[in-house]
């Protein structure tokens, strides 16, 4: 249940915390969220900074009317949207103060929750539905350096449009308000999407909202940067670059590092990366000074969903922390069971895996997450048995299995699938189908590369204890190649099957017309028609068959037979 008086957002009712905002001209400017009896959260671009007073209308209030309350922008709680050098937006949040307080029962609290792939709803006031309407969407991922989250509408008509800016985004499972709508747009390709500012980003811009925000932080206190961590001599630049690359999604699902106690530079660098990648802890100072840091060392906000300090914790305790961050219901069930059932995925950082109460249990938990698609950054304190087990269970073992599955798949593509296609090509000539020779050559080359690497041992990433698959085949690229070639082979085989079916249909039609024509001749011969039949018959019997040419020949024969038989029938009628 959502914290605060507003309660969970029911799809059957107008939420009491949903606010319709009108500008000084009386037109609907956008939406807002009632967080306290006096404060309404909205977008900065909704607030008319040139007007002293706007109007907040409480469409979900109890009773028949819609209370309207004058509201003034909080001058020290206005963060306009700004664009960085790359055009990434930041900010666009503001608070309105009501002249008359609303009942506390109408308010709602913000809630921290990991957003990727969540089903959400928002209540806005577009022109066509200015009384308010629910929009459904899926939160799909982080965009830009401010940690904004992209929303894909559930249907084309549910794109958040003007009148929705500032609307609360409610998680469909829990009813918690986990963000605020920023904008909705359609790009030049016709793709329709919206953006929301998640709660952590809102609180970073407006720290005064922390008291009305629930849910634990995404970063355990032990993993946050300290004042000393900003010292230049405490930055391990190569390590910072590798961490930032993983947090920006460099394509690797699992990264394992060793950061020993007493290695102050690597410890500070790790805390710095985790802090900068968190939406709420990434301060304006750290963002503004990013250009002063070494290139490639500053991750984007939202690079991880959760950073856990594992020292002294059980695997069950860590699983509960993950389940809580994911907003998984049914706390009476074991957290690992809830995580398995949800098949949720997130970007997870776990520090001190080998210092957990049951390190092997933690690895088993992380393996469940890995199998469901989560990205994992593991930090261990020593390069001992737990480190070797982590590499085998989460890196080298899955890599071998993935490589073996890819070898099996490419073997099928270059063997039976290619042979099936060759058999079809021997039967009929392709029409309008691109040649597949180059695709098959690429598939054979990929298979040979994988087979050469199959027995190769993985190599350590570096002397510091990094563990990553060695410079072997690019499995992701070969998987995309397999998808492409398999798709083209399958489509080609289907097209050739259609041509074979058409060839067989034409052969049946030719035989039927021959029988009818011979019956009409009563034993006589017609060399001209017989020549057309022989040409069509020869083309249909040829291997490979040119179906287009055969079709033209059969059409010529059947037209001639139809004309001949009609002419004979007409003569017979005159004689009678």
Question: How would you explain this protein's 3D organization?
Answer:
The chain has 576 residues and is α+β, with helices and mostly antiparallel strands. 38% of the residues lie in helices and 19% in strands. The chain contains 12 helices and 20 strands. Strand 13 and strand 14 form a beta hairpin. The longest helix has 47 residues, at 475-521.
Largest sheet: 6 strands, antiparallel, barrel
- Largest sheet strand order: 1-2-3-8-5-4
Termini separation (Å)?
Answer: 94 Å
Which percent range describes the beta-strand content?
Answer: 15-25%
| Average pLDDT taken over every residue | 86
- Alpha-beta content class: alpha+beta
| Helix content estimate | 25-40%
Q: Uncertain segments of ≥5 residues (pLDDT<50)?
A: 1-5, 286-291, 457-470, 570-576
Number of helices: 12
Question: Care to give the gist of this entry?
Answer:
This protein is of the alpha+beta class and 576 residues long. It is 38% helix and 19% strand. The protein contains 12 helices and 20 strands.
Secondary-structure blueprint of this entry?
Layout: E1 18-22, E2 28-34, E3 39-42, E4 54-58, E5 68-79, E6 82-83, E7 89-90, E8 93-98, E9 110-111, E10 118-124, E11 133-143, E12 148-153, E13 168-171, E14 177-186, E15 192-198, H1 199-205, E16 213-214, H2 237-247, E17 254-258, H3 264-276, H4 284-288, E18 306-309, H5 315-326, H6 335-342, E19 347-351, H7 359-371, E20 375-380, H8 385-427, H9 437-453, H10 475-521, H11 527-541, H12 547-575
Parallel strand pairs: 9-16, 17-20, 18-19, 19-20
Antiparallel strand pairs: 1-2, 1-4, 2-3, 3-8, 4-5, 5-8, 6-7, 10-11, 10-13, 11-12, 12-15, 13-14, 14-15
């Amino acid at each position: 249940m959502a914290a605060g008086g507003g309660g969970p957002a029911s799809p059957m009712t107008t939420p009491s915390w949903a606010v319709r905002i009108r500008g000084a001209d009386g037109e609907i400017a956008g939406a807002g969220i009632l967080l306290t009896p006096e404060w309404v959260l909205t977008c900065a671009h909704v607030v008319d900074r040139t007007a002293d007073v706007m109007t907040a209308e409480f469409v979900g209030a109890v009773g028949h009317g819609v209370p309207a309350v004058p509201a003034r922008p909080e001058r020290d709680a206005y963060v306009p949207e700004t664009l960085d050098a790359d055009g990434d937006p930041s900010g666009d949040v503001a608070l309105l103060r009501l002249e008359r307080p609303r009942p506390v029962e109408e308010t709602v609290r913000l809630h921290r929750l990991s957003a990727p792939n969540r089903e959400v709803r928002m209540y806005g006031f577009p022109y066509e539905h200015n009384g308010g309407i629910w929009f459904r969407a899926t939160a799909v991922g982080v965009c830009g350096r401010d940690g904004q989250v992209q929303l894909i509408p559930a249907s084309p008509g549910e794109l958040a449009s003007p009148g929705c800016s500032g609307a609360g985004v409610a998680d469909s499972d829990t009813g918690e308000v986990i963000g605020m709508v920023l904008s909705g747009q359609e790009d030049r390709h016709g793709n329709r999407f919206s953006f929301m500012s998640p709660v952590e980003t809102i609180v970073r811009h407006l720290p005064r909202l922390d008291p009305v925000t629930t849910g634990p932080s995404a970063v355990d206190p032990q993993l946050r940067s300290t004042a000393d961590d900003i010292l230049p001599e405490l930055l391990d630049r190569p390590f910072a670059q590798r961490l930032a690359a993983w947090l920006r999604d460099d394509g690797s699902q699992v990264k394992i590092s060793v950061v020993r106690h007493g290695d102050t530079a690597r410890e500070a660098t790790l805390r710095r990366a985790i802090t900068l990648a968190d939406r709420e802890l990434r301060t304006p100072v750290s963002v503004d000074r990013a250009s002063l840091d070494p290139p490639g060392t500053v991750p984007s906000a939202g690079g991880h969903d959760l950073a856990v300090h594992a020292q002294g914790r059980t695997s069950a305790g860590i699983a509960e922390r993950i389940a809580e961050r994911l907003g998984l219901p049914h706390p009476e069930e074991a957290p690992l069971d809830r995580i398995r059932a949800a098949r949720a995925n997130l970007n997870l950082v776990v520090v001190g895996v080998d210092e957990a109460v049951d390190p092997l249990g933690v690895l088993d938990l992380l393996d469940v997450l890995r199998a469901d698609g989560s990205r994992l950054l593991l930090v261990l304190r020593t390069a001992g048995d737990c480190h070797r087990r982590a590499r085998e269970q989460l890196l080298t073992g899955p890599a071998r299995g993935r490589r073996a599955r890819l070898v099996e798949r490419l073997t099928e593509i270059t063997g039976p699938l290619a042979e099936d296609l060759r058999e079809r090509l021997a039967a009929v000539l392709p029409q309008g189908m691109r040649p597949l020779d180059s695709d098959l050559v690429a598939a054979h080359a990929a298979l040979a590369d994988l087979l050469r690497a199959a027995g190769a041992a993985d190599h350590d990433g570096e002397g510091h204890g990094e563990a990553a698959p060695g410079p072997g085949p690019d499995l992701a690229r070969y998987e995309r190649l397999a998808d492409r070639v398999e798709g083209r082979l399958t489509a080609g085989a289907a097209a050739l099957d259609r041509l074979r079916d058409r060839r067989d249909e034409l052969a049946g039609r030719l035989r039927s017309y021959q029988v009818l024509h011979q019956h009409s001749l009563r034993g006589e011969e017609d060399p001209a028609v017989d020549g057309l039949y022989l040409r069509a018959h020869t083309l249909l019997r040829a291997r490979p068959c040119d179906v287009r040419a055969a079709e033209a020949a059969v059409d010529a024969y059947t037209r001639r037979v139809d004309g001949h038989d009609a002419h004979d029938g007409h003569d017979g009628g005159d004689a009678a």
